[in-house]
Specification:
348 residues; Alpha-Beta Plaits; 5-stranded antiparallel beta sheet; 10 helices; FAD/NAD-bd_sf; flavin adenine dinucleotide binding
Length: 348
């Protein structure tokens, strides 16, 4: 194993031959390999030759660590449906709780001039559960505040002989659901199973065609979690639109019903149910549930209009995400030509 910082991919006649990198002493070196796996994260500078990046920055996370406090439900993650967008709390040790405040847009209040402290104390703190309020204010006063842009990028691969792209360099979703590692680990299992029967990686073009199956086989898990993350973020974000408010409340109440109504969405969140159709059914079940609450016991023209806008808004949230993920790849993967291609035969 050689540790270093990769500067660029080595490309020859459209085939990736290896990498150019700097070692810990600052020397520029080259490393050659029949297969290069590129996974250099959300700020990847290597992805452009391997995919068609369309990066969206819907918001930023502002991170704090709260000390010596008790969560309302111990040992569980918490999503606070705040205004303008969600706030997350989850334990990271026996005495520490991480708080992630979602700030919509690409810019956050400045930390250096005190705008961030003011924002957290005046806008966010009043929405924090009472059990965490004092610890939250103490963490803000301590000043160890970190910010990170939230990025979303559909998987749009450009199959290139000699290389495979993985992780956040290849595919990102809003981190509200914490699905990034689930997708990454699932991708590793898919790629491992494809590489397992191979004994020769040197036929770059044949190997590239074979590994196109990776992009199809990963789709059920990846697209389910990607779509859910994007849809939930939009549903959970506050809006002045009454129909969006109804959708947000309907989602909360739907999950509160328990049984199938909570187990189904949680199995989708965790990657245990990698079926995009289940996600679509639950999402529109929430919308229908919201409309039903509006129309019962006696529908009025105003409530019927809000219900119609709720259904329209739900479609407007989920359908563009599905379109970006690829309808055929999500729901009809067996139709994709590279699906389950047999391993290349060994060359004599």
């Amino acid at each position: 194993m050689e540790q270093g910082t990769v500067i660029s991919l080595l490309e020859e006649k459209g085939t990736i031959k290896g990498v150019q990198y700097k070692n810990k002493d600052g020397q520029e070196l080259t490393a050659y390999a029949p297969l290069t796996i590129v996974c250099d994260g959300c700020f990847s500078n290597l992805r452009r030759s391997l995919c068609n990046p369309k990066v969206d920055n819907p918001s930023c996370f502002v991170g704090l660590v709260l000390e010596n406090c008790e969560l309302p439900c111990a040992n569980h993650g918490h999503v606070i449906l705040g205004d303008p967008s969600p706030i997350l709390f989850y334990p990271i040790s026996s005495t520490e709780v991480r708080c992630l405040v979602d700030v919509p847009g690409q810019k956050v209040p400045s930390i250096s001039n005190g705008d961030m402290t003011k924002y957290l104390k005046t806008t966010v703190a009043p929405q924090v559960p009472p059990e965490l309020y004092d610890a939250f204010i103490a963490a803000v006063n301590k000043g160890n505040i970190r910010t990170m842009p939230n990025r979303s990028m559909p998987a749009d691969p450009r199959p290139t002989p000699g290389a495979v792209l993985m992780g956040d360099a290849f595919n990102m979703r809003h981190p509200l659901t914490g699905g990034g590692m689930t997708v990454a680990l699932s991708d590793i299992v898919v790629l491992r199973n494809l590489l397992r029967p191979l004994r020769d990686l040197n036929d770059a073009s044949t190997l590239c065609k074979y590994l196109e199956s990776f992009y199809t086989l990963r789709k059920p898990v990846a697209s389910t979690i990607n779509t859910l993350a994007g849809a939930l973020y939009k549903v959970f974000s506050a809006s002045p639109d009454q129909a969006r408010k109804e959708m947000r409340q309907a989602c909360f109440d739907y999950l509160s019903l328990g049984g199938l109504f909570s187990e189904g969405p949680i199995s989708l969140l965790s990657g245990l149910n990698p079926r995009p159709l289940s996600l679509v059914l639950h999402f529109f079940a929430v919308a229908v549930f919201g409309v039903g609450r509006l129309l019962l016991p006696f529908p009025s023209p105003k409530r019927m209009w809000i219900g119609a806008r709720l259904l329209s808004g739900a479609s407007g949230i989920i359908l563009p995400i599905i379109k970006a993920e690829g309808i055929r790849q999500m729901f009809f993967p067996a139709m994709v030509p590279a699906y389950y291609r047999t391993p290349p035969a060994l060359q004599e």
